[in-house]
Amino acid sequence: MVRVDNNTLYNNMFKKKPTLKPSANVKGSERKKVYSTLASTYSLPDNISEDGKLAVLPKTIKSARYATFQNDNGRLFTSETGVPLWFDLSHPNDPVGELVPSLYTLWSAAFLVPILITNGFVISKLCNGADLMIPGIFDESVPHDLPGGAIVGIANYLNPTVPLAIGYAEVDNLRNRVEANEGGVGIKIVHYVGDTLFEMVRGDKVIPEELNVITPLAENATEGPIPVVGNIESANKNIGDANAGTYDVSPASGDGDYENNNDSEEDDDSNEIERVTENFAQASINQTFELQTESKQNSDNELDDKDESIKLTTAEIDELFRKALLQTLHKAIASSIKTPLPASQFLSSYILPNLAISDPSVVLKNTSWKKATKFFKSMEKAGFVKVKEKGGEVIILSIAGKDNVTVAKFETYSVKKPATAVSSSNSSGSSMMNLFEFYRAKNSNNPLFDAGVYYTVQELSNTIQAYIAAHRDTVVNRVKPKEIIVDEVLAKTLSLGLGSRLGRDKINDAVLARFEKYHVLTKPGQTTVDRSHMKGVAKKGPVPKILANIETRMRGKVVTVISGLEPFKIDPVFLADELRVACAGSTTVTKGVKDEDIVTVQGPQEAAVRKALMKRGVREAWVVVNNRSKKGRK
Q1: Between β-strands 546-552 and 623-627, what pairing exists: parallel, antiparallel or unpaired?
Q2: 396 exposure class (CB count in 10 Å sphere: 0-12, 13-18, 19+)
Q3: CB neighbour class for 489 (10 Å; exposed up to 12, middle 13-18, buried from 19)
């Protein structure tokens, strides 16, 4: 069991992005020394399998020096593709230091360290920078011999083999302290899902559901130590105790504590476990990350999904759409849907996401109505919606609410929410990033548009035109049909005076003036974006540009300075490594204004820079080259 000096590691090491120097390949002989150090430190058996060894340390690795925001220097080992594997804080007389695994390494080699268990609420706090307090630990998951300074993983009891944070024991005899229900910090957290080390892996990431915590041994091997992960079954039996009451979570500084406000007796009843599971399922950390590596488990699941075929009758599909509409209307009682709006938008944004079954066969053309027009007219006869058809487009004028008994008493059901996908308008190349542009209302009191929704230009136009069509008798100038008379709703929507007049061709511009522009850049090949998860994804303003300035420095030295990489999720260190080889010149990575990463390469390298950026999916229109050198100014 590895034990580190508590004064060496610091909590929240990667709360802010570390400064990385260019990486270099690790020679085979040096890699063997690193593995030997790991095997000794983490008590790996001699008869561990080859797959187990590679899970601990791949054959090809890179290393780079780094400095944390706390000005602590260390060494980072990464895979060939840049996935962080191990990190340390080196001492002057110790070139390697105490190596700590990343979460990506533990997900490949969960047998390396003991895994302590807590609940989803606490996990969510750890992944926001808090330390793990003693009352938040399930006692049965703590090994009796766990010393102070021991490196451990932290997992949610719902997935007890999958660590979501890594830290070290702050105190000795942690098991006894947990059983005695003492207070204070139990585990100092040094790395967690969502910190800057975790986010070094570009693109989406997925957290595994289950891992094997048994050390894999070579064939014909029958003996070998198995690391202690605690008694998972006993820990699950004590969920009621560990989750009882509420907890005050300390900030990253560790000033506070988790305080158990209630005393509860042990309850092994399975119903109690189910109740606690339901309570904390909602508070668990969002496990929707996608990993860039393929796993056998995911492949098997995909094959299983493809093999499953759902055979539904027309009547059953009809009922699915009817219930999806009722669920939409029932939800709208608490969270209103602003009407009028185009039926196509109502269908795609509200009804389809509420279908109980997500299957290719569950589409309108397989219903008895066949088309959306007939479906909505049928629902109008049932009293659920009011519609109007104008120029072939069906408009939803209003929807039934709590006054409708069927809607009010409808029992909602859980659905596997599908992506509210929007296609890109520039998805020509599968190897290129794609740009999506959205608009969000500036004011929350907009009568036609929800402030929290991201709309496309077409949706804004469709909605405003649907309103005009539904109220043409009052808003369209009969003498000048191309002129709109602003009513109360339009006055609030467009911030115009009541009764003022506006040309139809000016409506869209007037709408856009009341909205803020956002953009989303996708990874190469992704041609849709899920609007149900836009928080933190959509960025305000138009798409930024990558700047490549060719400049003349001291003594006539010409360099190319590249900035603006972060919005495109381009790793500056790996870009610098590639350009150093491609240009046969020196490269550096420095910090600019607002902690921005800047890559500088020797010589005028416009062609090489464009090629390297295009290789990473950056379109030519997003790169601006300014030749400010003496030669460029002639």
Answers
A1: parallel
A2: buried
A3: middle
Domain contains 592: yes
- 308 is a domain residue: no
Number of separate domains in the chain: 5
The alpha-helical segments, DSSP class H, found in 308-385 are: 314-334, 343-346, 372-381
Which strand ranges, in their side-by-side order, compose the sheet holding 341-342? 341-342, 393-399, 385-390
The model's pLDDT over 533-572, given as tens digits with 9 standing for 90+, comes to 787 788 999 999 999 999 998 888 899 999 999 899 898 9
Asked if the model's pLDDT at residue 253 lies above 90, the reply is: no
pTM above 0.70, yes or no: no
Are 115 and 243 in the same domain?
yes
Predicted confidence band at 115 (pLDDT cuts at 50, 70, 90)?
very high
| Same structural domain, 428 and 505 | yes
103 and 117 housed in the same domain: no
- CA dist., res. 81 & res. 98, Å (int): 23
Structure tokens given for 13: 């090491």
166 and 199, same structural domain? yes
- Per-residue model confidence (pLDDT) at position 264: 39
Same domain, yes or no: 477 and 581: no
* CATH number of the domain residue 560 falls in: 3.30.780.10
Tokens 């979501």 identify what position? 164
| Coil vs helix vs strand at 371 | coil
Query: Using 50, 70 and 90 to split pLDDT, how confident is the model at 223?
Result: very low
H/E stretch holding 606: helix 606-615
